[in-house]
Design a protein that fits this description.
heterodimer; A: alpha/beta; Rossmann fold; six-stranded mixed β-sheet; 17 helices; 32% helix; B: mainly alpha; ABC transporter involved in vitamin B12 uptake, BtuC; 2 strands
Chain lengths: 510, 312
C-alpha cells in the first residue's frame, strides 16, 4: 500500500497528562506529515518531553488519542513504539558506554537461538550507515567515541529498526557548528525518504532553518502554530515566553582595566587520569568578560574546578589580584576575591534539601556579621536573605522553602545572588543559563553585564555559543584542554569559532 | 618439618585440596558476578549459602539421596532469589541493607531449624569422589584435577558456561546493558526488572548450590557453617573484575592459600598462636589484592542503583 503523502503519519489529539500538582500537557494536538520536519518549540518545562515520552510509550496520557498512519493506537511501552516505527534520539544519549556500537544497535532485538552474533548486525549496519553517510566504526566502544560519533550511533540505532517517524530531542545541543550542518544534511536525506521528523529545540535560528511546521508549547498548552516563512525569531520567542523578548543584546564597549584573574601554565588531571587541561594560560582584566567556548568535555569543567580549588592543580598557578597560589582551596580563593557559579548547580552550587535562606548563606554564615560564638544570628540572616530574594527576583514562596522545590531558573538565581552579592573581584561562571527559561536567562545576562560594568573580571564558560558571543569581550576556544585560538569582539564569527572548536587552526581569513 | 612440606606428595595433595576448598567460593562468586553485572549487589550470599547447606544436609540426613539434597538446595536458593528480587527490584529497597537482612535471616533461621529438627550434630556420608577414567591415572595431574566429587567438576564447568552466557548470548547482552545504563536498555524495550530478577535468581540458586557443596563436602552441619565464605565470595567478584575467569582465579588463589595454611598446621610446622595468625592469611591476601585491583577496573556503572523509569 502506497501511503498518501498528504495524510499525516502521526496525529496526536487532545493529549492531557497530569502529574501531582502540575498539568504537563493540556489538550495538546500534534500532526506530522511524512517527509516533513515538525518542530516542537518551548521552554524547559513547557511539556515537550512529556508529550514525546507519551509518544514513545514511557507515559500513558490521561486524555486524548494517538493515530499512526490513520490507525488509532495505544502505545504501551518503548518496544511497542519501536515496533510501530517510532524512533527516539534522546538528548542524553541512550547508549551503553561499555558496549560496542554494534552491540548497542543489537540490544533488545534478540538473535538467532538466543545468541548475540554481531556479524549479521554489522552487515546491515554498514548498509544503513552507507546510505545516510553516518560513518561510525561498529566495533568501537561507545566510551571511545567523540560526541558527534555517539550521536550518529544513536541515530543509526533508530534507523536500523526502520523507524519511519523519528523524534530528535535537542540533537544539536552538544554539537559544533560544522557537526550541526552535517546533521541537518542527514536529516534532510531522511525526510527525502518520506520519513517524518519531530525536531525539539530551543535554538531559534536552527528551528527557522530546518522546520517545515512549527508547534510552540507554553505551560503545557499549544501557544502557537506556524511555519518559518510566516515567522521570525522574535515572533517564535514571543510565542514561547508569552511576551516580547529582546534577542540581540547590544553590549557597550568598555575599556578593560588591569589584569585581575590569571592562570599560568596550568596542568590539570581529568577524571580518567588524562591531562584534561594542558599548560593553559589565560588572563581576565577587570571590567572584562572572557568567554571560553568549546564542545563539552574539552577541559572546561576541569579548568573551573581547578581554579576554584575543587580539583588539584598538577602544575602552574592561579593568580587573583596580586595573590597567587598553586594549591588553592575554595575558602582560600574566596578570601582572595574569587566567586564561582558552577556548571552543576544542583551538585556544586546549591544543596537541594537546604532552604533558600540556607543556600544563600552557605558562604557567609561564619562571618561575624551572621554568627557569633558558633551560633547563627537568625534575624540578621533572615533580613539579608529577604533582601537578596527581592533584589535578584527569586520566585519562591518564602526564604524557608526547600531549594529543590524551585524551578531551574530560580535555583540558578539563588546561586547567582549568593555569589554576586559577595565582594569578589573575579568570577568563574560556568553554563549560567543552561536549562534556564528565557526570562531568567535574560536577567542573568543583565546581572553579568552589571558586574562587568562594576569592574569585575569574569571568566564565562559556556557551551551556548550565542551566549558567549553576545556577552564576551574576548573568546578563547578550548580543545582537548588547550587554547585553540583567541578572538576579540570584532573577530567573532560562528564559522571561525566552530572550526576552532573542531580543531581546524589554519582557518584562512573569511 | 619444612623438609616434609617440600615434597611432591604434599605439594600435590595441597593443590588438590585447594581446588576442593575453592569450589563453594567459585559457585557462590560466579552467581554473584552474574547478578552484579546486571547492577544488583547481593550481600545475602552468606545467608543463602547457609540455607542451601542446611537444606542439603537435612535432605541427605532424612532421605539419604544426594541428588534430592542438591535439588532441594537449588530450590531454596531460587526461592531466596525471588524474595530478594521482590525486595530490591520490585520494591526498590536499598540493596546493601537488604542483603544484610537476608544474611541475618539465613544465619538465624538455619540455626533454629538445626536446633529444632536435628539437635545434636549427626554426620552424613561425604560426597563420593569420582575418578575420571584415564585422566585420573596421570601422575600428579590426575590427583590434582581428576579425583574430585561431581560438584567440584560442575563448578569449574560453569565458568565457561557463565562466560558464554554473559558474552555470547542476547540475554548476556541485556545483562551487561542493564548493569551499565538501565535507561538505555529500557528505551530499547529490554525489561530491566525482568533481567535483574533472572540474574538474582541465578545468583541465589548458585549460592544455594555452594552451600550444598560445602555441607556435602564436610559431611556435617553446625551453626554458621559457612563462617564468612559467602562474604569472601563477594570480595572475589571484585577481585575477578566481574569476569568468570577472573572470579575463578580468585577462588583458586583463595582455596590454595587456605589449603597451604592447613597443610602447614597439619604438619606441625606452625603451631599455636602462629597458626591462628596464619589462618588469617587468605583474608588478608584478599584485601590486599582488592585494594590493588579495584583501583584499576570499574564496577558496573549501575551497581546498587535501583531502576525507576519515572526518575530517568
Amino acid at each position: 500500500m502506497e501511503p498518501d503523502p498528504a495524510a499525516p503519519m502521526l496525529e496526536m489529539r487532545g493529549i492531557t497528562k497530569r502529574f501531582p500538582g502540575v498539568v504537563a500537557n493540556d489538550g495538546v494536538d500534534l500532526s506530522v506529515l511524512p517527509g516533513q520536519v515538525h518542530t516542537l518549540l518551548g521552554e524547559n518545562g513547557a511539556g515537550k518531553s512529556t508529550l514525546m515520552k507519551i509518544l514513545y510509550g514511557l507515559y500513558q496520557p490521561d486524555e486524548g488519542s494517538i493515530e499512526l498512519r490513520g490507525e488509532p493506537v495505544t502505545i504501551t511501552s518503548p518496544s511497542d513504539a519501536i515496533e510501530r516505527g517510532i524512533g527516539m534520539i534522546h538528548q542524553h544519549f541512550m547508549l551503553v558506554p561499555t558496549l560496542t556500537v554494534a552491540e548497542n544497535v543489537a540490544l533488545g532485538l534478540g538473535g538467532r537461538h538466543g545468541l548475540s552474533d554481531m556479524n549479521p548486525v554489522k552487515e546491515r549496519l554498514a548498509d544503513v550507515s552507507d546510505r545516510y553517510g553516518l560513518r561510525v566504526d561498529p566495533d568501537a566502544y561507545i566510551w571511545q567515541l567523540a560526541v558527534g560519533e555517539r550521536q550518529r550511533a544513536e541515530i543509526l540505532k533508530a534507523l536500523y529498526r526502520d523507524a519511519s517517524l523519528l523524534v530528535l530531542d535537542e540533537p544539536t545541543a552538544v554539537l559544533t557548528p560544522p557537526e550541526v550542518d552535517e546533521l541537518f544534511a542527514t536529516l534532510r536525506q531522511l525526510t527525502d525518504d518520506g520519513r517524518g521528523l519531530v525536531f525539539i529545540s530551543h535554538k531559534l535560528h536552527e528551528v527557522m532553518e530546518l522546520s517545515d511546521e512549527i508547534t510552540v508549547l507554553r505551560h503545557g498548552k499549544v501557544s502557537g502554530r506556524t511555519r518559518p516563512s510566516e515567522a521570525s525569531r522574535e515572533s517564535l520567542a514571543e510565542m514561547m515566553v508569552g511576551r516580547a523578548v529582546e534577542l540581540t543584546r547590544t553590549v557597550d564597549q568598555q575599556t578593560a582595566g588591569a589584569p585581575q584573574l590569571r592562570v599560568s601554565e596550568l596542568d590539570v588531571i581529568g577524571d580518567r587520569g588524562n591531562l584534561a587541561v594542558k599548560s593553559l594560560d589565560l588572563e581576565v582584566c577587570s571590567g572584562e568578560i572572557v568567554g571560553v567556548a568549546g564542545v563539552s568535555g574539552n577541559g572546561q569543567r576541569e579548568l573551573a574546578e581547578a581554579m576554584f580549588g575543587l580539583r588539584p592543580i598538577e602544575r602552574g598557578h592561579v593568580q587573583i589580584g596580586d595573590e597567587r597560589t598553586s594549591a588553592p582551596t575554595p575558602r582560600q580563593v574566596r578570601s582572595m576575591g574569587l566567586a564561582y557559579v558552577p556548571e552543576e548547580r544542583m551538585r556544586d552550587g546549591a544543596v537541594a534539601d537546604f532552604t533558600v535562606a540556607e543556600n544563600l548563606m552557605l558562604v557567609d554564615y561564619n562571618t561575624p556579621t551572621y554568627s557569633a560564638g558558633g551560633f547563627l544570628k537568625r534575624q540578621r540572616i533572615a533580613d539579608r536573605c529577604r533582601e537578596l530574594v527581592g533584589n535578584y527576583r527569586v520566585k519562591t514562596p518564602d526564604i524557608d522553602t526547600p531549594t529543590r522545590n524551585l524551578s531551574g531558573g530560580n535555583i540558578q538565581k539563588v546561586v547567582i545572588a549568593r555569589e554576586f552579592s559577595s565582594d569578589a573581584t573575579a568570577f568563574v561562571v560556568a553554563q549560567p543559563t543552561r536549562g534556564v527559561d528565557i526570562g531568567a536567562a535574560e536577567y542573568i545576562h543583565e546581572r553579568l553585564l552589571e558586574q562587568r560594568a562594576n569592574g569585575a573580571a569574569i571568566l564565562l564558560i559556556s557551551e551556548d555559543l550565542d551566549e558567549v558571543m553576545q556577552l564576551s569581550d574576548r573568546i578563547i576556544v578550548l580543545l582537548e584542554g588547550e587554547v585553540m585560538g583567541e578572538l576579540t569582539r570584532d573577530e567573532f564569527d560562528v564559522n571561525t569559532i566552530g572550526l576552532l572548536m573542531s580543531g581546524v587552526t589554519s582557518a584562512s581569513p573569511a | 618439618m619444612w623438609s616434609d612440606f617440600f615434597t611432591v606428595s604434599v605439594f600435590v595433595a595441597t593443590l588438590a585440596s585447594g581446588i576442593r576448598l575453592a569450589t563453594p567460593f567459585l559457585l557462590a562468586a560466579l552467581g554473584e558476578a552474574v547478578g552484579q553485572r546486571s547492577g544488583v549487589l547481593n550481600l545475602g550470599v552468606e545467608g543463602v549459602m547457609l540455607i542451601g547447606a542446611f537444606a542439603a544436609y537435612f535432605t541427605k540426613l532424612k532421605t539419604e539421596s544426594t541428588v534430592l539434597a542438591v535439588l532441594v538446595a537449588l530450590g531454596v536458593g531460587a526461592v531466596m532469589g525471588l524474595i530478594y528480587a521482590f525486595v530490591t527490584v520490585i520494591m526498590q529497597a536499598a540493596q546493601g541493607i537488604s542483603g544484610i537482612g537476608i544474611y541475618l535471616f539465613g544465619l538465624g533461621f538455619t540455626d533454629l531449624l538445626f536446633q529444632k529438627q536435628v539437635g545434636t550434630p549427626q554426620p552424613i556420608p561425604k560426597l563420593a569422589k569420582v575418578e575420571i577414567p584415564l585422566l585420573s591415572d596421570i601422575p600428579w595431574i590426575g590427583e590434582i584435577f581428576f579425583q574430585h566429587n561431581l560438584l567440584v567438576y560442575l563448578a569449574f564447568l560453569l565458568v565457561p558456561v557463565a562466560w558464554f552466557m554473559i558474552n555470547k548470548t542476547t540475554f548476556g547482552l541485556n545483562i551487561r546493558a542493564v548493569g551499565e545504563t538501565p535507561e538505555a536498555a529500557d528505551t530499547l524495550g529490554v525489561s530491566v526488572n525482568l533481567t535483574r530478577t533472572f540474574t538474582i535468581v541465578i545468583g541465589n540458586t548458585m549460592a544455594g548450590l555452594a552451600g550444598a557443596a560445602l555441607a556435602l563436602e564436610v559431611g556435617i552441619f553446625q551453626q554458621n557453617l559457612t563462617a564468612g565464605q559467602g562474604f569472601i565470595a563477594i570480595a572475589l567478584v571484585y577481585f575477578g573484575a566481574w569476569r568468570p575467569v577472573g572470579v575463578m582465579s580468585g577462588a583458586l588463589l583463595f582455596g590454595i592459600v587456605s589449603a597451604t595454611v592447613l597443610t602447614l598446621k597439619t604438619l606441625g610446622i606452625v603451631e599455636g598462636a602462629a597458626s591462628s595468625l596464619l589462618a588469617m592469611a587468605p583474608a588478608i591476601l584478599t584485601i590486599v589484592v582488592l585494594v590493588v585491583v579495584s583501583r584499576r577496573i570499574a564496577a558496573p556503572a549501575a551497581l546498587t542503583r535501583p531502576f525507576d523509569r519515572a526518575a530517568s
